[in-house]
Amino acid sequence: MNKIHFTSSDVENAQAACKRLIHQYGQSRILDASVIVALGGDGFMLETMHRYMASSLPIYGMNQGTIGFLLNNYAEDNLLERLEAGEITRLHPLKMTAKDVSGKITEALAINEVSLLRESRQTAKIQIAVDNSVKVEELTCDGVLVATPAGSTAYNFSAHGPILPVNAGVLALTPISAFRPRRWRGAILPREAKIEFTINEGKKRPVSAVADAVEVRDVSSVTVEEAPEITINLLFDPEHNLEQRILDEQFIL
Asked: What's the pTM?
């Protein structure tokens, strides 16, 4: 863990911190590094996970942003000791396969969620199938999303979806401002589930699909499933582990 590649967001305090840490601990090339230390907020941490997903290197975030849910507390001293004592949390992203009305297919990965959102003043009408079985013939709504456990405390939670323990092996399927069926509040699905969305009246009621920062406009169908072959390794201080933080979020009033 002594071969560190530091990276930071473009905000002033994060860049200044990065320079100080490089001066103190040195900077390894990404090809030689044994760990990545990311300085910024949760948004930058997501960017870092996407950027270095293929490397399989553990990523240790230190908060130089606002909330820092995915990051450890910032401190410059004893960094090597903290890295050695860190605990790994393994995440698997979602794979989105979106087909637009012209027939073009776009694939993208999401660490937090894949969300479908209406583009116009009219509500979206979306059919939902799980493992080739139609579960909701037509959801009239502002949208619907599929969230990972790591993303369940973000947009999913704002849409009144459940908070999921990291190691529970499930995904959250959550409607966004559903009008019909009015009493449907979503579902918790096994991580192996394949969720298929079909857009009804897509030309009249256009829908976008968003996988983290990748947006596809005017979709006709979207498939979402976990990508178990891809593993993201996050490194946390023992007293700051993600599993406990997500558990604690359920008791915040």
From this structure: 0.89
